Amino acid sequence: MAPERQRAGGARRLPSVPGSWDTVVILALVVVIVVGGAAIDGVASPRFWRFVSLEAIPIALIALPMTLVVITGEIDLSVASVLGLTCTVLGELWHLGVTSLPLLVLASLLLGAVLGAVNGVFVTVFGLPSLAVTIGTLASYRGLAYVVLGDRAVADYPAAWTRRAISPIPGTVIPWFVLVAAALAVVFGIVLHATPIGRGLYAMGSNAEAARFAGIPVARTKFWLFVATGTVAALAGVFWTFRFASARADNGAGLELSVVAAVLLGGVSIFGGRGALVGVLAAVVLLGTLRNALQLADVPANALTIVTGTLLIASVVVPNVVGLARERVRRRRAAVPGAVGAEPAP
Fold first, then answer.
1. Which residue, 93, 117, 211, 281, has fewest beta-carbon neighbours within 10 Å?
2. Rounded to whole angstroms, how far apart are CA atoms 73 and 124?
3. pLDDT at 324
4. Alpha helices, DSSP H only, in the chain?
5. Which residues does residue 247 pair with via DSSP β-bridges, in sequence order?
6. Which residues of the chain have pLDDT under 50?
7. Per CATH, is 22-331 categorized as 1.20.1260?
8. What is this structure's pTM?
C-alpha cells in the first residue's frame, strides 16, 4: 500500500503544463482580435462587435446548460430544433391572435421545458443513450416545426418587440439581451462551481455508478438538466424570432454544431467529468469573432463551416494528445530513480 500512496502523491506533485485550457482559449481570442483588427478592415469598429454580440447571444445561452449536460457525460443535439419549433409555435400563436408578449414568452419557455423533459425521460427513465435520443428528437422537433408553419413565415410582429430584442445598452453598442445571458451565466456558474450540485455533476461524468453509491440522484439530476437545456433553448428561440422579426421552421438550423463546438473548444471533455464555464464563454466569443472576421474578409460560407468543424475536432484531439503526453512524462519520471514523483525502490 505504501508504494501506491507514494505514487498517488507523486502524481499530485507532478508539475503541469503552464496555464490551463481556459487560458489557452482566452489567449487565442486575444490573438484573433489583435490580428483581425490589424489585417481586416472593420474588425476594430463598434458595428463589428455589435454583430458579434448578436450572433453570440443564442449560442451562449444554449451553451450554458449544455456545458452541465456534457460534464455529466451526456449530450443534447436537439437544441437547435427546440429553438426552431419554439419560433414556429410563437409565430403561430401570434398569428392566431395571442398579442400578449409575456404570455407568448411564457408559452415558449413551457414548450421548451416539455421538449427537454421528453429527452430527459428517454435518457433517464428508459436508459437510452442521449446521443441517439437527441439525434432522433433533432429530426422530430424540426419536422414538427414544419408541420406548424410549413414554408410560411410570420413576420408582422410589433416594431417595439423587435427593437427591444436588439436595442443596445445605453452608451454602448452591445445589445441589452447580453445582460440576460450574463445573468444566466452567473447562475449556472454558481451552480456548477460553488455548490454540491456542481460537484455531483463532475462526479457523474467521472463515474456515474460511483456517484450513485455516493447518494447522488443521478437520474433525477440529468432529467432536470435536459429540462433546463430545453427551456434555455426556447429562450434563445424567442430572441431569435424577434431579432430577425421572423418565425420560420428552419430558424436556427445547424446551430447545434456551433453550440457543441463552443462547449468542447471551451475545455469541456466530451467524455464528461471536466470543464468550466469560463472557457466555454470565451470559446463562444472566439468563434463569433473568428466567423465575423472571416466574413469581412470575404471568406465563403462553406469555408466558415469547415473552420468550425476543424475547431470542433481540434477541441477533442488536442486535450487528449496533451493528456497522453503528460502521462508519458509522468511514467518516465516514475521510472527514473530519485526523480520527482518517482516510485521508491523496493
1. 117
2. 13
3. 82
4. 2-13, 21-39, 46-71, 79-95, 101-124, 130-149, 159-166, 177-194, 196-206, 208-213, 218-244, 255-265, 277-296, 301-335
5. 154
6. 1-19
7. no
8. 0.89
- Nine cell digits for residue 9: 502523491
Q: Tell me what pLDDT residue 19 has.
A: 43
Residue in 82, 84, 77 with CA at minimum distance from that of residue 250: 84
Residue 315, pLDDT score: 78
Identify residue 89 by its one-letter amino acid code: V
* Cβ–Cβ < 8 Å for 66, 259: yes
Return the closest-CA partner of residue 183 out of 61, 26, 53: 61
- Residue 105 backbone dihedrals phi, psi, to 5 degrees: -65, -45
* Inter-CA distances, 40 with 43, 267, 297, Å: 6, 28, 6
pLDDT of residue 337: 67
Quote the CA–CA distance of 169 and 181 in Å, as a whole number: 14
